Amino acid sequence: METSARVVVIGGGVVGCSVLYHLAKNGWSDVMLLERQELTSGSSWHAAGGLFTVVRPNAAAEMHRYTFQIYKELEKESGQPCGFHLTGGLNVCRTQDEIDSNLMMQSACRRLGIEGHFISLKEVQEKAPILDTSHMIGAFWEEEGGHVDPASATQAFAAAARQLGATVHRHTPVTATTQRPDGTWDVVTDKGTIHAEYLVNAAGLWGREVGRLAGIELPLMPVEHHYLVTETIPMIENLEFELPQINDNETGCYARQEGKGVLLGAYEDTCIHWAKDGTPQDFGHELLPNDLSRMEWNFNKSVEIMPCLGEAGVKRVINGPMIFSPDLSPLIGPHPALRNYFCANGVMAGFNQGAGIGRVLSEWIIGGEPELDIFNWDIARFGDWADTSYTEATTKYFYEKRSEKVFPHQEFDVGRPINKPQIYERLAQAGGVFGSSFGGEHPNWFASQPGQSDSLTYRQPNWWGPVADEGKRIRNELGLMEFSAMAKFEISGPGAETWLDFIVTNLLPKLGRITLSPMLSPKGRVIGDFSIARVAHDRFMVLGADYMQLSFMRHFNQYLPKSGVSVKNLSNDLAGLHICGPNAQALISRLADRDMDTTSFKFMSADKMRIGSIDNIMVFRISFTGECGYEMYLPRNRQAELFDILRNEGSDLGLGLVGTRSLMHTRLEKSFAAWGLELSSDYTALDCNMMAHVKPEKGDFIGRNAVLNYSPQQEKFVTFTVDIGDCVIWGDEAIFFKEKPIGYVTSGGWGPVTEKHIALGYINIESYNKNNDYFIEIMGKMRLAKLSTRPLYDPMGHRMRK
Ligand SMILES: Cc1cc2nc3c(=O)[nH]c(=O)nc-3n(C[C@H](O)[C@H](O)[C@H](O)COP(=O)(O)OP(=O)(O)OC[C@H]3O[C@@H](n4cnc5c(N)ncnc54)[C@H](O)[C@@H]3O)c2cc1C
């Protein structure tokens, strides 16, 4: 056996074989896959092989679509049939909520050019005569639906990879992985040790065990999953075409034609974990004992729409294990704690996502970064807080709730609270309705009665009015917000200035001042957006989106010199409070131990100061609402003291508690872009209008060459007001000009002062003209959208500077 390879992929399921194929296809043929038994010895051999492309979010849809489209090409390249059936897919709608959910999907699909539309119940019967439509009120058709033969598709990836020069060693279990000081890996097997530059953990059901070989604990938990295959059904035997893939989301069921019968799979209403403490090493091409009674509810619901199932004999029952992450989405990308170690784990739908994962990981390994924003699947979205009990609780919950809708802005209670701010009880007593971010709790809004929670709807929710009132308070008086959900880094040392200057694009601030700066990838994509304060000559405090903190640290560590610079992640050590509104300055002036008027501590200043009885509070004068605002950061155990001081002293200034949703709505009136919505690695600094914060003239920084070679701008960041009745804008809706989709919404909400629905988004630059009539497709209807060429509120920004 070879003793070295550029990349060693551990695991020969569909995901590992696809990663190997994509690495070889993208030019790295010195790559090797090690499989402990035969290929497909985990979940891959017994999958149902169903394919669908209409999913959210967009990056996931792009991954599904890419995977779907590759099978034909792969058959040709490998000479190995994949058993690919292009049948189309049909989403059954039994309720108005399911219609609404598919209407949102329909609009979102246009961005990617994925074909999905509603069909009549008559068409349903033409496409799927086994369906009784009396339990349906609608159906959504996706052109790109079907199925593959799982074992053949996996073998096809491996065969095509071999033809491109990759090697595959079966019956070669990996027993140890050790890292050398230079970051390369020794991969130990009973046939010898392979020295590799990069390692990919694609060990599927054994992802945890292979992770432990390198000292990491991955948040993964296996579950059991059933499907059955019926005997021949006469109605199907007589059909001259193949049935589509049928998805009945409200019952957690999927079905397709298998031979002349039906394959019916179910997310059973009780989730059973399997091998919680570790996947047995001797498990392979086996199945788990089946228990059809667990599928009873799903089966009976399926008989309602497919009565022929009630008459059919059952030929085969499969109960197989698959392994999930806490939110059931894949865990991919470089592990934040290890150099040159890539994860390709927790893949729930490998035959829909496997090729996409292979593509993204090959881009990441070979090119240093993925070509699209895949954060929703990035392993860095989970911190240590996603421990075993959290993973066990969430995988159970999301498996069992598979048949329930996911509503816009929905917060899930499962596994929470993990990390409560010190003032949690005070906020709860005041009616705080909490959301969570990276394991931390913060109020989204305040209800008039304690115990109220978000209404779940695709239309206007119960928090709409209260959030608008909180926005008005911010505009007219004074809001107090729990503000710990920020990534907070202290960067210090004799080399701090030079290093940070290379990491970010803007000029670094002078002492006591704040600068806004994007952080770019080498290819010029926006991978961070920071507020940077210089707090001493050689010390900076950097704030960014809190849920990106491990992703930021991963990037920082990649460039950190051996000495001279220290980067401390203080996100969890420091709590935050934020006051915002025209009376904010009056309040802080009463409490601070220094002058806080506009000339002494002007907009974009930062310093440590005493507030009330508390020393050394880090205060940023900054604004995301468009009003005068101060963010205050201090040790977590002093937050309650500061909160009480602010609340007492602010009572005669109209101070009221406000949640993060009012922050997100007020910033819409200012056209302020938010991380994860308008800003992400899908964009360059030019795309998202950040060039004022990019200074190529300052000297070298990461992404500078890309900036100098940016191709001309394709899309323009825009603000619209929209007339939409009882609907709301959630993001991802398609924007039309002259009946053609020319852009998409990134976020939407209600402007508290303008009293209008506001949408932010991107449109093709050639369609940009203030006199054009635009339309946004919301809940299946085209709504007139009025372009605003400048922020709707205080366009010159006087109020936040006052
Ligand atoms: C009943 C059922 C139905 C399903 N239906 C569908 C469907 O319709 N559509 C769909 O897209 N997905 C479906 N899935 C999910 C799909 O099967 C998985 O997403 C996919 O198989 C995961 O592939 P993988 O490569 O990540 O892992 P696995 O298939 O588990 O492969 C991992 C491989 O790693 C090897 N390995 C482990 N440890 C080592 C080691 N130390 N050294 C070397 N090799 C090692 C194993 O032997 C194994 O071959 C279904 C799953 C089940 C259980």
Query: Largest beta sheet, briefly?
Result: 8 strands, mixed
Number of strands: 38
**Poorly predicted ranges (pLDDT <50, ≥5 residues)?**
none
Q: What is the percent of helical residues?
A: 25-40%
- Radius of gyration over alpha carbons? 27 Å
Number of helices: 20
How would you sum up the global shape?
A: globular
Key phrases:
alpha+beta; eight-stranded mixed sheet; 20 helices; 38 strands; 25% helix; globular
Your description of this structure?
Helices cover 25% and strands 29% of the residues. With 802 residues, the protein is α+β, with helices and mostly antiparallel strands. The termini are far apart. β15 (253-258) and β16 form a beta hairpin. The longest helix has 21 residues, at 58-78. The strands form seven sheets. Strands 1, 2, 9, 10, 11, 12, 18 and 19 form an eight-stranded mixed β-sheet that branches. It contains 20 helices and 38 strands. The site of flavin-adenine dinucleotide has 42 residues, from α1, β13, β17 and α10.
